[in-house]
Amino acid sequence: MRTFADAKIGDTLGPLEVFISKDQCRRYARSGGMDAPRFTDDEGARKEGLPGMILPGNMSLGLLCKFVTDWLGPEGGAKLQRIGTTYRVPVQPDHTITFHGFITHATPEDRTVEIDVWIENEDAERLVTGTATVQFPK
Amino acid sequence: MVDFDPSLINHIFEETDPVKVSAEDIEKFCEALGESNPIYNDEQAAKKGPYGELVAPPSFAVSFRNGRHFFEHIPRFGQRGFDAGKDVEFVRPVRAGDEITLTSYVKEIYEKTGRSGSMVFVVIRSTLRNQNREVVAHVDHRFMNRP
Amino acid sequence: MATTLDLHSHSEASEDSRAPVEAYLNWIQLRHSERPLDGIVLTEHRQFNRKADYRHLEDKYGVMVLRASEVETNYGHVLVFGVNEDILKRFDFANVRLDAQELLDEVARMGGLAVPCHPGRPNIGMCEHYRTKPPLNNVVAVELLNGGSRKGEDEQSAELIRRYGYRATGGSDSHLVSLIGLCATRFAADIRSIEDLVRELKTGQYEPVDFRPRRQPVTNAVAVEPR
């Protein structure tokens, strides 16, 4: 169980290497009613000028949330309070992506911790960037 | 500078009908995301988690769709492009049995240039409320248009 | 005494950044052994904050904070150093279609310096524009190393610099706290103010420096499959 005292500025989350298959991408897209070709079909995505099918932005956001909440662990009272994301480059399934995080700030008064989070591709290019705020219980 | 009707800003243009959340919806969402944290599916584990009960993962909040006529209410600048990012404030968790509505307004419109060329960003703020009218989340969606 | 500055960074004043200035300085202090910076230059998108005063933070962290801007032109994005009232009256920084040649000429005439940034980036870097438009006059330096560059972009910038004999700078282009100082510029001279910086960029000795970590090869990833 992670506590506020455990979270030090400069500490890292991950790096975590993850492989999202095209099937999982389609499953997520369809479960959310996002069955546009860009999320389900390579050929359809290319017609939109994309390199192939891509993860919905919501899926990248969801995976980043999971990255943070997995780091927090299932026990204890720490909650994800906020996440902000920028989708800089499309994330393609059937590629290895790496999740990174750095704790950049800790506020004892309200027991919140700020974390830079991002997803990189195999060339170490940042595809999705963001920050998360976690609140630890008093 | 991008041209638009300033009265659009902060004007609520949509409140969706309530969408009821089932335990199955949450389970399907977890499966699709590869979310295996037991606090989302195991009652005993959930009791020890941050909410003390079974809840949906935080990012379930962005899975609620706006109304079918959503895009008719927001200004369009050339080709509709992509979801450019979201800022989400998680206020309360979503539970099975909740009924969620979204209330939306245009928060900001701005122009910039980037790797893919000229872009106009339309930022929509959607507030999710449950059946008790309690705020569940605030979601700022940034939609990128290509003029 | 040499000075190393990150010449390109964005604080939360830029709409796509989430980095408070104080958090940047704290990070620089924490990571000084890996990224030995003496200061940063805030180059906010399409704006210049006349009133911002970071002296209390400079004193607290021992790191210099200078202010500049990143504007958008018909030849891509350009960093403007030495922004003053004359420059702000002459150019609307919110305009995403400024004339690059006018910007270069007038900013220099009014005491500042305009430095095209990330020249190798598609659409908003000058390399692409040089393929279809005449080269700009009066370019002193361009940004060779940019912390947000994708594969091949810095290399294109290097080729541009070789071809035209431009001087080269480095900057992180950071929008996140932990990315500050990934690339920077090392000056031979002691720089204490924006006036010093403009003078040294025009006539001093400097080189871009790269503090990006060497990447480890990607090991076999674990597939994340649904339950």
Number of helices of chain A: 4
The number of distinct helices of chain B, counting runs of at least 4 residues, comes to 3
Order of helices and strands of chain B: EEHHHEEEE
- Basic shape of chain B: elongated
Major β-sheet of chain A, in short?
A: 5 strands, antiparallel
The CATH class of the domain at 6-21 and 65-146 in chain B, by name, is: Alpha Beta
- How far apart are the first and last residues' alpha carbons of chain A, in Å? 14 Å
Distance between the termini of chain B: 12 Å
**Major pleated sheet of chain B:** 6 strands, antiparallel
How many beta-strand runs of chain A?
5
The total number of structural domains of chain A is 1
The spatial strand order of the largest sheet of chain A comes to 1-3-4-5-2
Mean pLDDT of chain B equals: 90
Residue runs with pLDDT of under 50 for 5 or more positions of chain B: none
Class from helix and strand fractions of chain A: alpha+beta
CATH superfamily of chain A: Hotdog Thioesterase
What percent strand of chain A? 25-35%
CATH architecture of chain A: Roll
Q: What is the fold-level CATH name, i.e. the topology of chain A?
A: Thiol Ester Dehydrase, Chain A
Please provide the count of β strands of chain B: 6
Mean pLDDT of chain A: 95
Compact overview of the structure:
The complex is a heterotrimer of chains A (138), B (147) and C (227). With 147 residues, chain B is mainly β. Chain B has three helices and six strands; from the N terminus they run E-E-H-H-H-E-E-E-E.
Write the layout of secondary structure elements.
The complex is a heterotrimer of chains A (138), B (147) and C (227).
Chain A: E1 12-19, H1 22-31, H2 37-40, H3 42-47, H4 57-72, E2 79-87, E3 96-107, E4 112-120, E5 126-135
Antiparallel strand pairs in A: 1-3, 2-5, 3-4, 4-5
Chain B: E1 12-15, E2 19-20, H1 23-33, H2 43-48, H3 70-73, E3 79-90, E4 99-114, E5 117-129, E6 135-146
Antiparallel strand pairs in B: 1-4, 2-4, 3-6, 4-5, 5-6
Chain C: E1 3-9, H1 21-30, E2 39-45, H2 55-61, E3 64-73, E4 76-81, H3 85-90, H4 100-109, E5 113-116, H5 126-130, E6 141-146, H6 153-164, E7 167-171, E8 183-187, H7 194-203, E9 206-210, E10 222-223
Parallel strand pairs in C: 1-2, 2-3, 6-7
Antiparallel strand pairs in C: 1-8, 3-4, 4-5, 8-9
